[in-house]
Amino acid sequence: MERRRVVITGMGAVTPLGLTCPDSWQAVREGVCGIAPITQFDASELKVKLAAEVKGFAPEELLGKADAKRMGRFTQFAAVAAQEALADAGFDVSSADPDRCGVSVSSGIGGLSITEAEHSRGLERGWDRVSPFYIPTGICNMAAGQVAIRSGFRGMCTCPVTACAGGTNAVGDAFHYIRDGYAEVMLCGGTEASITPLAVGGFTSMKALSQNGDPNRASIPFDQERGGFVMGEGCGILLLEELDHALARGAKIYAEVLGYGATCDAYHMTAPRPDGSGGARAMALALADGGVSPEQVDYINAHGTSTHLNDSGETTAVKTVFGDHAYHLMMSSTKSMTGHTLGAAGAIEAIFTALSLHHGFVPATINYQVPDPECDLDVVPNTGRTADIRYALSNSLGFGGHNGSILFKKWEE
To answer: Which residues form the Ketosynthase family 3 (KS3) domain (predicted)?
Structure first.
């Protein structure tokens, strides 16, 4: 089977750092922290009072009042980000074959806030009085469905639900779908809006969230004082295109997608394998898929959640795959700025990785203070760097043992 080349021609983002892709990237370059006190509900009685919320989002203005009303917040994010990605790419489905244009958009939790609200309504008014829009706005796949409806893409439309690896799986699956000849164009990514009392309470009870009340010391990947992740929300959407299709319409190209690896630890509901072997295999598969040697990789956008098990395990996995070269590459976590956006994380970080290659700039792991001997690689502490990087990986690991890694290359004509 012919292995076709796949490139990124458009990107859109709604993140805790900005309401557009350019604004979010500029904040990354400046090392801005998007973490602040929770405003979406009263968290005064909770142990966790910080989150990385999307700020100033006005869906009625961006989507129209009628459409926004029929979407959950996670779907609104996806619709806006997809709209931006299409505009950024200068792509209109009317000039293409809509049956060869598809959608792959992940969400780990979907419309949890809708479930919470409708459950309360059912208790108060009776279960037959819940909203008729509850199911079609709350289910995880509806972001993907609405993106397809609004874009007119009639090819495969799917929603990987693989927890915190979902965004990476969505982009990686879309890449393979185009590469192997099933489509020319895919809108892909991930979206999440789960800063709710139930979600924050649930993650707090399992001791996954940081309870540090200082926004600058809450999400601190690879730092020895890390104590859990900070809940984030947002969306990242990429437009992937088969290379000849992109060139034929004169599209600008940000980066090339070269390889993808996905594995499962098959080990534990929430904890990764301590030796990082599942994540290591995903990275090794991505490199083999792209025909790139470990020594060629310059940068890794780490999963880097700021939990003890993840950060130490991911560091071990990188050493397993890269050997001595692990100490020569750069590996930072942009979750130090965005918090952990769950099913959107891999997509947002794929965008940041592509832009790192495009602009020759490696993001920092901000607010890093106390080195951890178990995480002794170059985590680009506190200040981003200008660097001529050609190959980069983006990693995601999720509850259930899901591991995903995508290999990108700087676009060179």
So the answer is: 3-410
Q: How far from 164 is each of 65, 71, 250, 252, 340, CA to CA, in Å? A: 31, 22, 35, 30, 8
pTM value is 0.98
The total of other beta-carbon atoms located within 10 Å of residue 132's CB is: 7
Quote the radius of gyration of the chain (alpha carbons, Å): 20
What are 249's two structure tokens? 């319409």
Q: Do residues 210 and 295 lie in contact, with contact meaning Cβ atoms separated by under 8 Å?
A: no
Give the Å distances, CA to CA, from 309 to 169, 266, 304, 313, 363: 22, 16, 10, 6, 23
Contact residues for 163 (Cβ-Cβ < 8 A; gap 6+)? 108, 342, 343, 398, 399, 400, 402
Catalytic residue set: 164
Q: Do the domains 259-410 and 6-248 match in fold?
A: yes
Each residue of 33-58: pLDDT tens digit?
Answer: 999 999 999 999 999 999 999 999 99
Residues 220, 221, 227: CA angle, nearest 5 degrees: 65
**Closest C-alpha among 291, 189, 258, 238 to residue 407:** 258
Give CA–CA dist 230/305, Å, rounded. Answer: 8
Instruction: Work out the pLDDT band at 286, boundaries 50, 70, 90.
Output: very high
Domain 6-248: which CATH number of 3.90.170.10, 3.40.47.10, 3.40.190.10, 3.40.50.1980: 3.40.47.10
The rounded distance, in Å, linking the Cα atoms of 209 and 256 is 35
Q: CA 151, 153, 156: angle at the middle one, nearest 5? A: 140
Contact 165, 108 (CB under 8 A): no
The DSSP call for residue 401 is T
- Map out the domains of the chain as residue ranges: 6-248, 259-410
By C-alpha distance, which of 191, 182, 180, 190 is closest to 156? 182
H/E stretch holding 354 reads: helix 345-359
